[in-house]
Design brief:
41% of the residues lie in helices and 15% in strands. The protein is an alpha/beta fold and 384 residues long. The longest helix is centred in the C-terminal third of the chain and has 18 residues, at 285-302. Bound molecules: pyridoxal-5'-phosphate (PLP).
């Protein structure tokens, strides 16, 4: 039987591959981006309460009203933007579903979407699945700064969508005010839509500030901004996120959303609504993660890695050429997992055409004991 494939070149994600390899070899898993510490017991309590209170049937298609209101309040307090919970907020099954839904609702076969590499691994398949073409612009270490003129030169009459991720996984780059201006200017001039993946909005360090597209009037009009409660509340397994977009965009978004998932986990939505309503739970995140970053960074330097600045997200990039100059990053990641007992992600996995870099990504959303145990193993490496 011939099985047609719209994603013929797509295999298992590098995250699943490295996690599996880590499990097989008993390696400490600093590869995939998920915490190994529990989420707030109060949130778990709220989940149990919501289920016991009978919130166990389909939620409204756009999301539980109390959660959408809590999201609108949160957006106002985090970025100053006013959003209408009814017509501009849609609760999704994590940011991943929101990303796919945006691609599905605005891209047609033959269209183009611009991705800035390194880019999160779900963007290109989401574009390809629509019969559209990802146009990938590689950015390089150490700054991973966007050359907006190069982005402008890659726009064609078929370009519909610009995908940005701020703060960026894996580069950790955080957009400046100038970046947002350049993005807005280009999107307006070429009449492009923007998919802004802001799942790491609350993880920005060293006094830097996250600038949301929602707080920029021109971008606000033409952006789908996507978020993840999994990232913000240490509960990646819940898979609840949301998309904020102006009414005409939200209306298109929901046409796909209603047939892709229709509605998202009801008790989790009630729990999140209640949890969010009390006070800004995300205020402490930068300090919490910055201390983990510093703990990991100090140990990695002592083990012989050369570190790039980690400005946001919960990742740290490290150049390993002082340890194994002879290996490319995929081979190094495999070697480190199987022989060094610590799993990482090769940064080339986030590129269509990776530059000559020797970088791996470590996740520091881990208990201090986990980070310390991993660092002890890394210090024992030959060359470390
Ligand atoms: C940049 C980025 N976007 C989206 C996601 C997925 O978010 P969710 O788990 O809510 O689907 C991730 C998860 O690692 C991510 O790093």
């Amino acid at each position: 039987m011939r099985v047609p494939s719209k994603l013929a070149d797509v295999g298992t994600t590098i995250f699943a591959t490295m996690t599996q390899l880590a499990n097989e070899h008993g390696a400490i898993n600093l590869s995939q981006g998920f915490p190994d510490y529990p989420c707030d017991p109060e949130l778990l309590h709220d989940l149990g309460e919501a289920a016991r209170a009978g919130h166990n049937q389909y939620a409204p298609m756009g999301g539980v009203p109390a959660l959408r209101q809590a999201i609108a309040d949160k957006v106002r307090s985090a970025s100053g933007a006013t959003v209408d919970p009814e017509g501009e907020v849609t609760v999704t099954a994590g940011a991943t579903q929101a990303i796919f839904t945006v691609a599905a609702c605005v891209l047609s076969p033959g269209d183009e979407a611009i991705l800035l590499d390194p880019s999160y691994d779900s963007y290109a398949p989401a574009v390809l699945a629509q019969g559209a073409r990802p146009v990938r612009i590689p950015l390089s270490a150490p700054s991973f700064a966007v050359d907006w003129d190069a982005v402008a030169r890659s726009v064609t009459s078929r370009t519909r969508l610009l995908v940005v991720n701020n703060p960026n996984n894996p580069s950790t780059a955080v957009f400046s005010a100038d970046d947002l201006e350049a993005l807005a200017e280009l999107a307006e001039r070429q009449d492009l839509l923007v998919l802004a993946d802001e799942v790491y909005e609350h993880m920005v360090f060293d006094g830097l500030r996250h600038r949301s597209v929602l707080a920029h009037p021109a971008l606000r009009r033409r952006s789908f901004a996507v978020y993840s409660f999994g990232k913000t509340f240490h509960a990646t397994g819940w898979k609840v996120g949301y998309c904020v977009a102006p009414p005409p965009l939200t209306s298109e978004f929901r046409k796909v959303h209603q047939f892709l998932v229709y509605a998202v986990n009801t008790p989790a939505q009630h729990a999140l609504a209640r949890y969010l309503a009390s006070f800004p739970r995300w205020d402490g995140l930068p300090a919490f993660f910055q201390s983990k970053r510093d703990r990991l960074a100090e140990g990695l330097s002592r083990a012989g890695f050369r570190l790039l600045p980690s400005r946001g997200t919960y990742f740290q990039l490290a150049d390993y050429s002082g340890i194994r100059e002879d290996l490319d990053d995929v081979a190094f990641s495999r070697w480190l997992t199987t022989s060094g007992g610590v799993a990482t992600i090769p940064v080339s996995a986030f590129y269509a055409a990776p530059p000559a870099q020797r970088l791996v990504r470590f996740c520091f959303a881990k208990r201090d004991e986990t980070l310390d145990a991993a660092l002890a193993r890394l210090r024992a490496l030959p060359g470390g």
